[in-house]
């Protein structure tokens, strides 16, 4: 059955009650270096205990486990934010968690998962193989496999961001959200449209990987190529049966693409001008806002960029600095 905007918004309201004991409201701050007129706000999901918005969905999903499911434990597959989120939420709930990562996952990423109490299992050469192994492990052991986005309760957890924004920025006109599997923007879009239907929700994707953008345009799931991108958090494919497609089609007003040079520059400006460590996915959303600001599209009212995460790898930081720092002779 197709989930409506009201359905997702209603479950987001319930999720807000569920997550609040563990996850306080994240702040918004003015981005005065980028917009001295005070028209741009940043929703600081990088302040979450795992450094990313993903923990909202994980806490909400694990809270809904039955007693039998809690006793069996959960399995996830991730090389980053989702794995850390599942580890955090599972430990808080007293639930055993295993996270499957590709064999060559950097030690720091694996440590971020393991240090929060989850078992890390290294398997496969890439994310698809790790996920297949995780799903097989969950089925074999009778445990619940937790998707990073293809789950209505995960999407509802991410939608709590929209409910907070509606209260935090009374004159909010538009919100820019980086898009991967659609759980974040689908949740935010539905929650906002229910309480503030006039707010424009803009989906932002890298030109190198845009499965939800393409699927919405086609009105159905489509497969797309995936090239290398600084926006690791949004990279990758879309499951054919994803529950996020219809909410994204119904609640997102516009879809925009940006290139790697613009993503790199925008991320660099957040790091150097706003003095914050952010992931490349945040640069995707900022790059779209900057383009629209220059064109006069974002000239009226307040805009907000969701700072979806702050877990920037050292190798990507080096790349961003190398591409943008001007070396004087």
From TrEMBL:
Class in the EC hierarchy, top level: lyase
- Cite the GO molecular-function annotations of the record: L-serine ammonia-lyase activity; threonine deaminase activity
Q: Which cofactor does it need?
A: pyridoxal 5'-phosphate
Where the record annotates domain Tryptophan synthase beta chain-like PALP, the positions are 25-309
Locate the transmembrane regions by residue number.
none
InterPro entries hit by this protein: Ser/Thr_Dehydratase (IPR050147), TrpB-like_PALP (IPR001926), TrpB-like_PALP_sf (IPR036052)
Task: Name the UniProt key words of this record, in alphabetical order.
Answer: Lyase, Pyridoxal phosphate
EC number(s) recorded for this UniProt protein: 4.3.1.19
**Gene Ontology BP annotations:** isoleucine biosynthetic process; L-serine catabolic process; L-threonine catabolic process
The entry's family comment says:
Belongs to the serine/threonine dehydratase family.
Species of origin reads Saltatorellus ferox
Name of the protein: L-threonine dehydratase catabolic TdcB
Q: Which Pfam families match?
A: PALP (PF00291)
């Amino acid at each position: 059955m197709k989930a409506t905007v009201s359905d997702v918004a209603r479950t987001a309201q319930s999720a807000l009650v569920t997550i609040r004991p563990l996850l306080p409201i994240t702040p918004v701050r003015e981005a005065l270096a980028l917009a001295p007129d005070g028209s741009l706000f940043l929703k600081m999901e990088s302040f979450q205990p795992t450094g990313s918005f993903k923990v909202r969905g994980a806490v909400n999903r694990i809270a809904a486990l039955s007693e039998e499911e809690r006793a069996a434990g959960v399995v996830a597959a991730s090389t980053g934010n989702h794995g850390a989120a599942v580890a955090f939420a599972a430990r808080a709930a007293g639930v055993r968690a295993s996270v499957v990562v590709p064999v060559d996952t950097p030690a720091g990423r694996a440590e971020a998962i393991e240090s929060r109490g989850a078992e890390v299992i290294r398997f496969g050469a890439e994310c698809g193989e790790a996920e297949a192994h995780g799903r097989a492990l969950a089925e074999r052991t009778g445990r619940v496999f937790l998707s990073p986005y293809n789950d209505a309760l995960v999407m509802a957890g991410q939608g709590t961001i929209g409910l907070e924004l509606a209260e935090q920025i009374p004159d909010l006109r538009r919100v820019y959200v980086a898009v991967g599997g659609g759980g974040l923007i689908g949740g935010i879009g539905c929650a906002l449209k229910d309480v503030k239907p006039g707010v424009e929700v803009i989906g932002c994707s890298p030109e190198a990987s845009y499965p939800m953008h393409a699927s919405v345009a086609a009105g159905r799931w489509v497969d797309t190529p995936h090239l290398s991108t600084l926006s690791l958090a949004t990279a990758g494919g879309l499951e054919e049966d994803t529950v996020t497609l219809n909410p994204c089609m119904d609640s997102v007003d516009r879809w925009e693409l940006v290139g790697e040079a613009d993503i790199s520059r925008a991320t660099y400006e957040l790091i150097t001008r706003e003095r914050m460590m952010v992931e490349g996915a945040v640069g995707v959303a900022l790059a779209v806002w900057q383009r629209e600001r220059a064109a006069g599209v974002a000239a009226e009212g307040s805009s907000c960029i969701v700072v979806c995460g702050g877990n920037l790898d050292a190798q990507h930081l080096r790349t961003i600095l190398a591409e943008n720092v001007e070396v004087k002779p």
